[in-house]
Amino acid sequence: MGENMSDVDSMEPTAPDVLDRRRPVWVVPDTVPAIVPRSAWVTEPPWVAVYRWAAIGGDLLAAVIGASVALLTRFGYTVGGGYLIFGSLLPLAWVAAVALARGYEARGFGAGADEFRSILRSGVGLTAVVAVASYATKSEIARGFVVLAIPATVVMALLLRYFLRRDLSRHRYRGRCMRRVLVVGRNGEAATLSERLEKRPADGYRVVAVCRPRGDGPGVSPADALDEADIMAAVNRHSVDVVAVASDPDLAGQSLRRLSWALEQHGVELIVSPGIIEVAGPRISIRPVAGLSLLHLERPSASAGPHLLKSIFDRVAAFCLLTLVLPLLVGIALAVKLGSRGPVLFKQRRVGRGNSTFTMLKFRTMVVDAEDRLAALAEQSEGNTVLFKLRVDPRVTKVGTFLRRYSMDELPQLINVLRGEMSLVGPRPPLEQEVARYAADDTRRMLVKPGLTGLWQVSGRSDLSWDDSVLLDLRYVDNWSMTLDLLILWKTLRAVLKGSGAY
Questions:
Q1: Burial per residue of 293-306, b for 16 or more beta-carbon CB atoms within 10 angstroms, e otherwise
Q2: Within 10 A of 22 (CB to CB), how many other CB atoms are there?
Q3: Any alpha helices (H) in 343-382, and if so which ranges?
Q4: pTM
Q5: Residue 297, strand partner residues
Q6: What is the distance in angstroms between the CA of the first residue and the CA of the last residue of the chain?
Q7: Strands 242-245 and 269-272: what pairing?
Q8: DSSP codes joined into one string, 188-221
Q9: Contact, 110 vs 202, CB < 8 A?
């Protein structure tokens, strides 16, 4: 390597399970150890095998439960021999379907959406196979059995995989079950990529070193660019599992291809950051064009079709929820009325999709003259730079404190959803004075309806800074889908029950 040797910023942990990044050590060795090739068929870490077998066991259990529920529901205790055989084969068929959908690949373990998507695809695929096989062989399989067995299996498999993923996340927050990562790139890009990988331990990436050109800066010459020898020496020195390349024009094309070949021989995974932030998988695809693998970035869903589907879902769900919680709404209304003087509902002008305004409804949680007393409390704000928040606000009533903790004061917003002014999931509904202070990028929040809940609700709520709140809202706008909405609704239940960040 000689004079072109790269600087390697080592980030090795000081304890086996705890990554201490407070004192990074700058390592510039005088000699580079010889690269010891590892087999491309490297033995997987023990936790990968444990997770895979646990996932397979969970899927087998889910299929057994699904088949049993279907048999007992459809036939009771008088089940024919043919259906017993079919029910006993369902677990094996289910595991095979998940395997074909890549549900047992290590790279998807703990990835959440990828794991759940593979199970959903397996359910659809297995249903189609059973339907086609039944038609082709003219066998008379009871539709009631199939309609019950496979959906029940899918639901149980999703539930068991969710708990398995939660257990893996707990281990990763303790520093276990992690992939050792070498980040490659120049100062700014490498630092950004390292920060984002370290920010979410649940994703399973532990940055142990950063490899960048010596003297990285504006005056760096092309001779100081990273090359394959530099990177492979760092891979050997730190025994990494993954090389993460930040966007770098000097490390692309044929250079990146040769690096992938070298890493393949050493059993090391290569991931490349395209430099596009806050854009999720559904909008990104790799397509071969003119012999090149080009990254395609699709436009956000802005057509009438997806919005119409979302609107129908919102209104049907809001109507059902209002019907279910009607007794609770009556009880809360009585508590608010008896707890303090004033109206039951608090009405406020908010800005919706396309900058249209509407009246948002909430149960009143403050005293009647709360707005008049705001100026005297402005300097005590514990919220962010735009929103006023106090953990112990003297204007909040006793009933209001309880309602705010569990977000029950927001239940009347289901009426706004039913009217079409809001959505179940979306950005936080802003005030008119907030919108007037928006930067150019912030106005993208107005492309979708504001939501009763959203990424901000499941990511910290009032504990978030203004920049973090806007970032989450823009991330939702750029990546929203019905699948994401359902995931956020599921996470909202947990966030509301915990009451974290609500005041």
A1: eeeeeeebbeeeee
A2: 5
A3: 374-377
A4: 0.64
A5: 284
A6: 58
A7: parallel
A8: HHHHHHHHHHHH-GGG-EEEEEEEE-TT-STT--
A9: yes
Cα–Cα distance, 465 to 56 (Å, whole number): 41
Structural contact between residues 173 and 201, judged by C-beta atoms closer than 8 angstroms = yes
**Helices (DSSP H) in 222-303: which residue ranges?**
228-238, 254-265
The two three-digit tokens of residue 469, written as one number:
């709140």
pLDDT tens by residue, 4-21? 445 555 555 433 333 333
Convert 409-426 to b/e letters by CB count within 10 Å (16 or more is b). Answer: bbbbbbbbbbeebbbbbb
The letter for the amino acid at 59 is D
- Helix boundaries (H) for 370-481: 374-377, 398-405, 413-419, 432-436, 466-479
Q: Are 44 and 118 in contact (CB under 8 A)?
A: no
**What is residue 245's DSSP assignment?**
E
C-alpha distances out from residue 138 to 71, 87, 130, 141, 258, Å: 21, 19, 12, 9, 54
**Token pair for 21:** 């990044």
Q: Residue 160 in 3-state DSSP?
A: helix
Q: Average pLDDT across each block of 10 residues of the chain; the chain has 503 residues. List them in order.
A: 48 40 33 42 74 94 91 76 80 93 85 81 90 77 78 93 90 88 85 84 88 61 63 88 80 77 86 70 67 68 72 94 94 92 92 91 88 70 60 83 88 94 91 83 84 82 69 82 84 73 51
List the one residue out of 81, 91, 82, 116 whose CA is nearest residue 102.
116
Name the CA radius of gyration of the chain, rounded.
27
